[in-house]
Amino acid sequence: MLDLAYVRENLTQVEEMLRRRGMDPAQVLSGFRQVDDKRRQLITQSETLKAQRNRASEEIAKLKKAGQDATAQMEQTKALRAQSDDLEKQAAEVDQELRTMLAGIPNVPHESVPVGRSADDNKEVRKWGKPPEFSFTPKPHWELGEQLGVLDMERAVKLSGARFAVYWDMGAKLERALANFMLDLHTSEHGYTEVLTPYMVNSASMYGTGQLPKFANDLFKIDNHDLWLIPTAEVPLTNLYRDETIDAARLPLSVTGYTPCFRSEAGSYGKDVRGIIRQHQFQKVELVKFTRPEQSYEQHEQLTRDAETILQKLGLHYRTMLLSTGDMGPSSAKTYDLEVWLPGQKLYREISSCSNFEAYQARRANIRFRPEGSKKSEYVHTLNGSGLAIGRTWLAILENYQQADGSVVVPEALRKYVGAERITPKKF
After folding, report:
1. Quick one: which of 159, 165, 387, 427 is 20 to 30 A from 355 by CA?
2. Helix or strand (DSSP H, E) at 229
3. Which fold does the domain 119-423 belong to in CATH?
């Protein structure tokens, strides 16, 4: 979330920021000034009463020492304590109301972010590679997967319902190979430390990275427990350092993890119903960085390049898009989307989203560092990106490496992991 003092002192700028994000300031900031003023008044009144109680207590001590009656002063102190307790309770309630308001205010976009209303206003930063050429009409992955016998949507429906998938044989092996390949590259060449985290987290963790309360409908909640299935490894990886002060000498700190991800996809019904583009469960390798504020934009570029390297080594044509204010997530100050070319569908699809949250998540999760020689700690900047979404990489390989005879060539970088050069049809 944003700093309270910043919002209070820059309310006009915050209102303009909300407009640039396509939001109505009157709705987001409704009553903010009144609630903030009420909170400060209650705190001032409470502190005044505490001072009166302290003076009364000193007077009682003097009277008792002198052997005099202090009954009136003791009754006064009792009344002051009751008033003070009531004011503290009111202040706590108003403070929570104010924190809820702050939690609903999105991050301030970086000055380099293009102003726009939607994805149509995103800016292409660069492209890599060229789309493959075919002597035949390329097929989409759902046709290829079924014909090869590696993707089984019907049995997935029998097991779990819509938006789930079963992978057979080389399909399952390709999924596992991609995870190993990505983790090996990020840990051996890009400097990330691999972490295996729980796949369920508590509400405090979801709040820390901004999933709660805004995106509760997109999540899966475990009944009778304060636990949620993770929508991305960003949540547990970032919250590893919640309520901690990181040693400044360790920054920038880079971690990576492979996890399944679970999303209800609320509001997306009717979209991407074919294939495995939009699933309730999918696997992903995530990249997370904790940095000093002055390092974060340099590290954001590095994290994005780390994700791009995976696509380059797999020989997959992609473009890097800088998201506009209207298309960017509320917690992000700047986001690049990597979009891979899918010839079977004749379009680009997001395969990684790389974001700099500045101190927005760190303030929610209370993640700090103490600069050398300073007694005062500061909030770190947090960054994350998919490195990559494995299911979408899987389908991109099928569509880009399909052959006229119906087989799929395995990219050279994956052959030692897959143990084969080609995926051929097989029935199960």
Report:
1. 165
2. strand 228-229
3. BirA Bifunctional Protein; domain 2 (3.30.930)
